From TrEMBL:
EC number: 2.7.7.6
Keyword Transcription applies: yes
Cellular compartments per GO CC: DNA-directed RNA polymerase complex
EC class (word): transferase
Domain of life of the source: Bacteria
A GO MF label: DNA-directed RNA polymerase activity
Protein's UniProt name: DNA-directed RNA polymerase subunit beta
Length: 69
């Protein structure tokens, strides 16, 4: 699903949507999304790489021991 997102096209769509909005609150939310998309585009990070597929787990011997009351 995330592989199908074209970041450049999405930025353009969101900017067009931003210009049509009247509500200040909605504009703030949309601007934060636009900034995120721009940063993804500039850095070259693909959206599908933002989701962890494997969760690293520290072996039990190396985990800190916490005493519960």
């Amino acid at each position: 699903m995330l592989q199908n997102i074209d970041v450049k096209k999405e930025i353009k769509n969101r900017l067009d949507q931003y210009l049509k909005l009247k509500s200040v609150e909605q504009k703030k939310k949309l601007m934060s999304l636009i900034k995120l998309l721009i940063n993804l585009y500039v850095s070259g990070v693909k959206p599908e790489n933002m989701v962890l597929r494997k969760l690293p787990v520290i072996p039990p011997d190396l985990r800190p021991v916490v005493q519960l009351d």
